[in-house]
Amino acid sequence: MDHSGDTSMSDDLCLANAQLILPDQVLTGSMTIEQGKITEIVEGDHKPSGSVDCARDFVMPGLVELHTDNLERHMEPRPEVDWPHLPALIAHDAELASVGITTVFDALRAGSIHSGKGRYIDYARAVADELLAARAQGLFKISHFLHLRAEICSETLLEELACFTPDDRVGIVSLMDHTPGQRQFRDLTALRTYVAKKRGMDDNDFAEHVANLKRLQAQFGDKHEKGAVLEAKRLGAVLASHDDTTREHVVTSQSNGVGFAEFPTTLEAAQACRDHGIAVMMGAPNVIRGGSHSGNVAAIELAQADLLDILSSDYVPGGLLMSAFRIADVWDDLPRAIATVTRTPAMAAGLPDRGSLQTGLRGDVLRVKSNQGTPVLSRVWVKGVRIS
């Protein structure tokens, strides 16, 4: 992936007397960042002149977030309340920086519904333009890419995807089929609760909404799925599946060329992903809460079964760092757990230049204290420049 255009700011920085979380070990030592890249890692407690004494705090790579709906929350802080997009973008960026996310793939819905009760308007192209303009003007603290959530069950998916070009930094296209009665919403009770709170639907509205979604899936499902796969290739984006539930879903995902699976809903699907070489991503809120809010498989269960590769903050940005430390307790392996929020997502998204404390990689790093097992973020640097 072309990741040119990231902030060009850089500084020289030496972090010393730190517990460096390296790819395969935790090492007491110092790390130097020059011109935005890690240039030296030295073992020992020596504190060079001018260095930052980290007092044995952890130093680790910046977090890499592949799927977050957080930007939409800033643009629509309450149902039907639209917030100006530039302030929303800047607030979103600052929030992510404050919780240690230094690279984000901002999820925007592609595919709208203009009929029935559950209407969704087109917005992805307009917001992407504003996001890319803000990035070009240097208004962001962290590195932003686009993630297009391709809604199979919609009316305008392919028209909306056609508006994007390979120059738009679309890093991920995920195939989402939210047809009621399958995948995430096998249990319609969970869907009813969600739309009733977000869209104010009564029972009649909900029944009409469900019928409309099923009609759209029957009319457009196959065409949209095949078209979205082709569009992802045209854009040079990594393809992701979403809410795979059965082995058959995973077989289809593999045939489509999916690189990683977002939030498989069953142990069966996660095992099938492993069997077919597809990385498994689960949500940080699932880890922290001990289970899925939709009643699907628990992320901890997948971790215990060695079927977890990547974590995403999903709808709680502050949960990403905490979830990695929770998984470290499950595995008794901190470097491996930290990789689920750093190196592994970076590689899955085609960004080999970041996500690990290794010489030659980007100096996106965090300083983290441990308070009775809970990680407390104290500093964030992007390319050696402190941003939080």
UniProtKB/TrEMBL annotation:
It comes from the Bacteria. Keywords: Hydrolase. The keyword DNA damage does not apply. SUPFAM superfamilies: Composite domain of metallo-dependent hydrolases (SSF51338), Metallo-dependent hydrolases (SSF51556). One of its GO terms (molecular function) is hydrolase activity, acting on carbon-nitrogen (but not peptide) bonds. Its EC number is 3.6.1.63. GO terms for biological process: organic phosphonate catabolic process. This is Alpha-D-ribose 1-methylphosphonate 5-triphosphate diphosphatase. It comes from Nereida ignava.
